[in-house]
Amino acid sequence: MDGYKGGWIEIIAGGMFSGKSEELIRRLRRAVIARQRVQVFKPHMDDRFSTEDIVSRDDRRLKAMAVVTSNELLARVEIGMQVVGIDEVQFFDAGVVDVCMQLADAGIRVIAAGLDQDYMRRPFGPMPALLAVAEEVSKMHAVCVRCRGAAHYSQRVSGGDAQVEVGDSSYEARCRSCYETYRATAQEEPEVQLTMPQPVA
């Protein structure tokens, strides 16, 4: 997109541990160096490393505004912005697709990073639609913890069966060959101990 003067959408997609936030921060910092006006957003629910920054796993940081909904994101974009970055975009509601389109149509460069699949290898939230409307898509890969090949999946290794389970310790990067379907183990019922009242001496 070098030399293009209008707005557009860039999506950085992939599994966990693939460097999506690192790449997002790299692109946004280049825009800052170029003296462009940059604003960064993240979903309010993502507070793993910081509530006020987007943070890569090698501890690169960039100030960000945490918002709850796509409508709030749009309302908080300041006049005159040239670049808008969005991290963990898969956690936003479906309206984030229209928000990205509106911003791009207004001449803003939109760079969004997020998981394209959940732990069951299903398309995640608004990502399929974002991938469809983006001018540029970058597919990131991690390193499989089993075979050291290119990992595309976020293997859940602990926790429940909810689609969203925030926390790095619950996941591993796996390739297609090493991926295993995860099934949450049933919680054992706690033993019930009855205490009988003792007669007063």
Tell me what the structure shows.
The protein has 201 residues and is α/β, with parallel strands linked by helices. It has a domain at 8-140: Rossmann fold. It contains 4 helices and 12 strands, in the order βαββββαβαβαβββββ. The strands form 4 sheets. A 6-stranded parallel β-sheet has the order 5-2-6-7-1-8, sandwiched between helices. The chain has a two-stranded antiparallel sheet with strand order 3-4. Strands 9-10 form a two-stranded antiparallel sheet. Strand 3 and strand 4 form a beta hairpin. The radius of gyration is 21 Å and the shape is globular.
Which bin fits the share of residues in helices?
A: 10-25%
Largest sheet: 6 strands, parallel
Beta-strand content bin: 15-25%
What is the CATH class of the domain at 8-140? Answer: Alpha Beta
Instruction: Briefly note the CATH topology name of the domain at 8-140.
Output: Rossmann fold
Number of helices: 4
In CATH terms, the superfamily of the domain at 8-140 is: P-loop containing nucleotide triphosphate hydrolases
Element string (H = helix, E = strand): EHEEEEHEHEHEEEEE
The computed structural class is alpha/beta
> Could you say what the CATH architecture of the domain at 8-140 is?
3-Layer(aba) Sandwich
Strand order of the largest sheet: 5-2-6-7-1-8
Number of DSSP strand runs:
12
Approximate shape: globular
Beginning-to-end CA distance, first to last residue: 88 Å
**Rg, Å, rounded:** 21 Å
Uncertain parts: 188-197
Summarize model confidence as the mean pLDDT: 86
